[in-house]
Amino acid sequence: AMARKESVKVQLGWKRTVVKRKVCSVFSQDEDHAAPEIPPAASLGGCNPRLREQGNECAEAGKFSEALLCFTKALKFVTDTREAAVLHELCAQVLLEMGSHFPAVQAGERCVATDPSWGEGWQTLARAQANIGEFELAVQSYQRALEADSSLIHIQQQELPYAKEKLQQKIKLDQTALEAGQLCRALRAPPCARILG
User: Rounded to an integer, what distance in angstroms lies between the CA atom of residue 26 and that of residue 103?
Assistant: First the structure.
């Protein structure tokens, strides 16, 4: 079945330029994207002081592989903790754009491990977790984002309620599957076992 994709605004870069992206391939089980290789930073050569800006420009132009290379290169040379967190978060956003949701989760985890006080890092991690169907983790990450930065109103008004709704749906489906499995086992039991319980 073809998945319904929703457009949401994603922000790239420190100045947080708004770009549109398609979200949530988690709702389509027929999409299977190979994760791109993130090159080791040591293999990328010299540093350009504009690497992050170039990465932002590439991402805004839809050149996600090039953006990922720029951000990865920049990580090799960054010494500031917040800047490192921002670069990991940008890598996560680009990986989401590329449909590489699990590597996006990994980049998001590196972001919040580098700077756990940055709400937007938690928000991006939550989006990546939701895209792989980990709604319980996504809810926790959205809550951490709001703890870190209560001004992230979009999370409170839309993203967190959506993740909570999906989590409840998943819990109900899991419970229904468990009950169906118990019923099937009971029906396969010998008649006297069904009566005796």
Answer: 14
Look at the block and give the residue holding tokens 């090039």: 66
| pLDDT tens column, 41-79 | 333 333 445 899 999 999 999 999 999 999 999 999 888
Q: Is 91 exposed, middle or buried (0-12, 13-18, 19+ CB in 10 A)?
A: buried
Q: CB–CB of 132/112 below 8 Å?
A: no
d(CA 160, CA 146): 10
Highest mean pLDDT: which range of 30-34, 105-109, 179-183: 105-109
d(CA 101, CA 95): 7
**Placement of tokens 């073809």 in the chain:** 2
Q: Which two tokens stand for residue 154?
A: 């979009």
For the stretch 6-32, what's the b/e string if a residue is b when 16 or more beta carbons lie within 10 angstroms of its beta carbon? eeeebbbbeeeeebebebbbbbeeeee
Would you give the end-to-end CA distance of the chain in angstroms?
Answer: 40
